[in-house]
Fold:
Amino acid sequence: MGAYQGYQDIIRSLFGSEIAVVLSGRDGYKDSDGLLQRIVQYGEELSINVDLSIKEPNKENHYYKGFQYTVVTTINGQELPIGDGGFVDWTQQLLGNKRERLMISAIGLDRLIAQMPAVDVSAQDTPSSKQNG
Structure:
C-alpha cells in the first residue's frame, strides 16, 4: 500500500483531493471474499490514510483473477476512476505454473491531465519566441 501514499500526495497537491481504493472480487481464486477482507483488515492495522471499501463483484470480468482494485478520486465535484489493477494469470500461462502470481497496476494520466487548468503557453518566453521577436 506504500505506493498509494505517493499517489495520494500527488493528487492532494495538484487537485486538493483524496483518493479511495475500491476492491472487487473476481473469479479465479478459491477465497476471493476472504482475500478482500484480509486486505481491508491489513490496511486498518497499518492505519493507512486511504479509504478502502469493497463493492459487489463483477464476475463477468475475467481480465483480473481473485480481485481487482480501482483508484478513485473526486476532482471539481466529479468522481473519477483514475487507475486500477489486480492479479492476472499471464505468468501462469507463460510458465505453465499455477503457483506464479503477477499483480499489475496502472494510473490513467490522461484522466488527470484533462482535469488540470489550462495554461496559456503563448505568453511564455520560449527559445523560439525569442528568436522570432
Q: What stands out?
A: The chain is about 35% helix and 30% strand. The radius of gyration is 20 Å. The first strand starts at residue 19 and ends at 25. Residues 40 and 52 are 6 Å apart (CA to CA).
